[in-house]
Amino acid sequence: MTNGSLKSVKHRVLADTRRSRVSMIYFGGPPLSEKIAPLSCLVPKHEDWLYKEFTWSQYKSSAYKSKLGDYRLGLFEKQPLLTHMSSE
To answer: For residue 66, what are the CA distances in angstroms to 4, 15, 27, 62, 73?
Structure first.
């Protein structure tokens, strides 16, 4: 959605071992047919997009075929990102 201008971080929890802890997850998302694309206010020209437009359903299918922690946007890149490949 930000076309790479904002980077997400890996989720990590540091728990206090002296106290009990409860974790709960909640998965939410848009309708399966919803199109995912960069925000036009961040990337006004379509040709500057790093990723092809895709649906939430396409993303979920891709995610379910990959391992947890894998890079999940690779299938949607317009061209391979050299910065991503060199960081592995």
So the answer is: 21, 28, 18, 7, 11
Q: How far apart are CA 34 and CA 58, in angstroms?
A: 10
Identify which of 57, 87, 52, 48 has the alpha carbon closest to the alpha carbon of residue 73: 52
Say how far apart CA 35 and CA 30 lie, in whole Å: 9
pLDDT in tens, 58-81: 999 988 888 877 888 888 888 754
> Would residue 21 show up in a list of annotated catalytic residues for this protein?
yes
- 37 Cβ contact partners less than 8 Å away, ≥ 6 residues apart: 1, 49, 51, 53, 54
56 vs 21: which has the higher pLDDT? 56
Per the residue annotation, which of 12, 18, 19, 21 is the catalytic one? 21
Rounded Cα distance, 52 and 49, in Å = 7
